[in-house]
Predict the 3D structure of the following.
Amino acid sequence: MKMTERKGRVSPGRSLMNWSFLIGCLLWSAGVWAQPDVTSYAKDRIVVKLRADGGQARTAEAPPGTLTPVFPAKQNPTGRQAATKYGLERIYYVSVPEGKTVESLLSLWQQDERIEYAEPYYLPQLLVIPNDPEAQLIGGEQDYLEIIEAYEAWDVTTGDTTVVVAILDSGTDFDHDDIQGQLAYNYADPVNGEDDDGNGFVDDFAGYDLADGDEDATADIDNHGFRVAGFSSAATNNAIGIAGVGYDSKYLPVKMFRSSDNFFNQGYEAIVYAADRGAQVINLSWGGTNPTTQFSEDLVNYAVEERDAVLVAAAGNTAAQLDFFPASLPNILSVGATNSQDEKASWATWGPFIDLMAPGDNVYTLDRGNSYRTVLGSSFSAPQVAGAAALVL
């Protein structure tokens, strides 16, 4: 996942630049964070490389330990090993003798002038690769997980079930097998026809439909919101389907497109609802080029500055350099789209307001009816960043 510098956009408290740095470090540079621990090396051997003019066999004066070629070469007619450009024939395992430690043996070999290097034999840790079929490195449809280095990020952390990612969109599919166990339930307001928690929303146990004013956040017309949710919040390591980037985080569906006509309604108000429900990350995979309003900025600023939420928004699919709202608002992480070569997608919006980029060109996700599909758009780049934000929190 690539980061670009955002200029002239400063957020009070936890700055957006800090969030860009944290998320970028986790996904784009997770490999650096996931280096093997200093103790994760073999205790029975070290690795040494002899200098080119230092001979290929141990002499009487050599430090202790039995040398074994790492790459035993085929013997040529003269009985000598064939030379390679990088001197592989000069690299040996050295066994740690009884009474010695790796550290003491290294010290002795590193002092020998005939040695090019002497190093521990590190034992890298396996990447966290969930058992979801489409998340497999070979044969899986989620190749974008490699591009954003999600596996390396999961080596650092798989997040926490107390972190909630709210998807403010067209609704969800509560029955899909690959979303089971992912919902952030509001146990203070069970479905009984009463507003038990007094938050003004009756029975908002499993999300809410603000557009229609009821508790059912099911996607009636458009599956866009459920497809978006797949990237951040699909059940991970459940041996079916795909893996959500947010791994252990929970998912709050908030519907703000009307069931009757799919008309946008209560979208910015939904930001306040999600923040008040305790969502630490709020994804907005919608927007337009209409000018921003003070109303929308007030609601965004409330969620970020008073509720400490991270807002992530899609930068648009305009194939132009322009402002796209709400992504261009100061307190929002704006996410542009890349293609399978990790380059800006030809149809993607670009500009100085974009904070991060993530794959959005023919990427694989959930669909209704226990199915999956390939989709295109920055709408699907943003939730990958939302999932990454959930890992950081």
Observations:
- The first strand starts at residue 2 and ends at 3.
- The CA atoms of residues 118 and 278 lie 53 Å apart.
- The two ends are 18 Å apart (CA to CA).
